[in-house]
Every structure is written in C-alpha cells, then in structure tokens.
Structure of Cell division protein FtsY-like:
Amino acid sequence: EKIFSGFSKTRDNLAVIDELLLYWNLADTDKVLDELEEALLVSDFGPRITIKIVESLRDDILAGKLKSGPDIKDALKNSVLDLLTKKGNKTELQLGYRKPAVVLIVGVNGGGKTTSLGKLAYRLKNEGAKILMAAGDTFRAAASDQLEIWAERTGCEIVVAEGEKAKASSVLSQAVKRGKEQGFDIVLCDTSGRLHTNYSLMEELVACKKAVGKVVNGAPNEILLVLDGTTGLNMLPQAREFNDVVGITGLILTKLDGSARGGCVVSVVDELGIPVKFVGVGEGVEDLQPFDAEAFVNAIFS
Ligand code: GDP
C-alpha cells in the first residue's frame, strides 16, 4: 500500500524504540521512555502530546498493566490512535445532497493546493462524479495555467477568469452557477494562497465563501486546508489562522512521502480538532490517499 511506504522516514525515526522494547525489562523503564520521548519529538508529535503519551505509558508500566515490550508498543499505538479518532471527526468528504456540492481548497502558495485539487478531481471522477474545476487563484497568472493542465490530465472541465483583474469570488460564483445549470456533481474551487498574514487574502476567502453560498444553499460543503507536511509543527499557527477566519472542515496534508515529521498529523488533529481527510504521498494523479487513522498508525509504528 502506497501510504505505507509514504511514511517510511517517520517510521525510521520511530524505529529506534523497537530494539529497546525487544529487550525491555522494568529496570529499563526510564531509559526506554526517554528514548521514546526523543523519537516522538523528532517526528514532530509536539511536546504536549509527547509528554501525555510518555507519562501515561509510565503510569501503566508502574501500575503493572504493561508487562512486556510488545504490551508497551501496543499501548503506544493505541494512544496515538485514540488521539486521532477521539473527536469522532468525519474523515470522509461531507458533500450534502444539493447539486453541485462545492469544495473550496485553501492554503498558502507552494503547499500543494493545485496539485491536491487535481488529484482529488481524479479520485472523485473515478468514483463516478461529474467534476467542474474553478480557477479561483486569480492573483497568480500561472496558477490557472497549472490548473488547466490538471483539467486536461484528468479529463475534467474548468472555469477560468475572463480578463485580468477578475475577482476570485466572481470566478467561483460563475463556476458554481455553471455547475448548477449543467448538472455537475461537484465544483472543486482553487483559491489564492499568497502569504496568510496578508489580511486581504483572508477577506478574499470570506468573499469566496459567501459568493458560492449565494448560488447554492449550504455551499461550500467543505473547506479543505492544504498543509505542507514537510513544515511539521510550523504548520500549526497558519492552520489556526485559516480556521479562525474561514472555518476549516478538513485538512489535506501533503508531501508526507518525503517527510520525517509524520507526527505533525497527530499534533494538528489534536490541536485544532479538525480531521485529516486526505494525505498527499507524491506528485502523481494517484498520490492522494483518504486518511485512515489505523493504517497511519500501522505505517509509522510498523
Ligand atoms: P500550490 O501553490 O499550493 O498550489 O502548490 P502546488 O500544487 O503548485 O505544489 C507545489 C509543489 O509541491 C509542486 O512541485 C508539487 O508537485 C509538489 N507537491 C504537491 N503535493 C505533493 C506531495 O504530496 N508529494 C510531493 N512529493 N510533492 C508534492
């Protein structure tokens, strides 16, 4: 399974504890837990989660509940799985019943927004949906060219801005109107991603959200924030800001194929309470995987 190999670097980071657990006995507890703490921090689980996990393992070991290395490993995997699933967040896209469903893809430039939109289009089209793309990044000329390439590659139709200085919100509202008139199932909307500290970007996203809601009640159905997995914990403040302004319904974490910082997946879910819906594990059309918490845990702690 692709996602399995996608986390190989994070797995390598975490593998240091395996040997220690193999020969574990009670007297080694402090040493083993210190090493585990280090490995979790290096993989970007973040200090809060790391301490929570390590201390709960220590308590269970001292209480005699964990009696062997494999017991400890299982407890570790379960506690990570709990963190990922306890909020009962829906990891599947929630597209409602009105047509077209509208998905806004947001995030800072370079994170993998356009690529993820293309991969998502490919996946949804293969599931039988009629997809319309909307090139809402009117700020960067190259962005719509890039999306047009993805439209061709995936055989999807696309709406692009007519003329320069078109407003993102009007391109998106035009696309959703066309989606409605022509029976599209889903409109996937790209948005601009110049620096997140730029207030006008946030204003623009709010305007986009309103504009599509005027065409179809309840739209957008999903606002997916694309985060670059190689930035690890640094993605947190950015994610918080997007969430505060537009209300994020799900995350797409990209570039996890090359990242040793897979623990940030757990951190971001725990800190923001927003589910990861997809992970990007490469640059090809098929390299977007639905996020499966159990498969993830098995991939990083093999
Ligand atoms: P945008 O500016 O947010 O739209 O970012 P792009 O979609 O243009 O992606 C930026 C770069 O990251 C491109 O070179 C993509 O091919 C690359 N990229 C995106 N997602 C992934 C991924 O999951 N894995 C890898 N290895 N590269 C990715």
The beta strands are 101-106, 131-136, 157-159, 186-191, 222-228, 250-254, 276-280, 288-290.
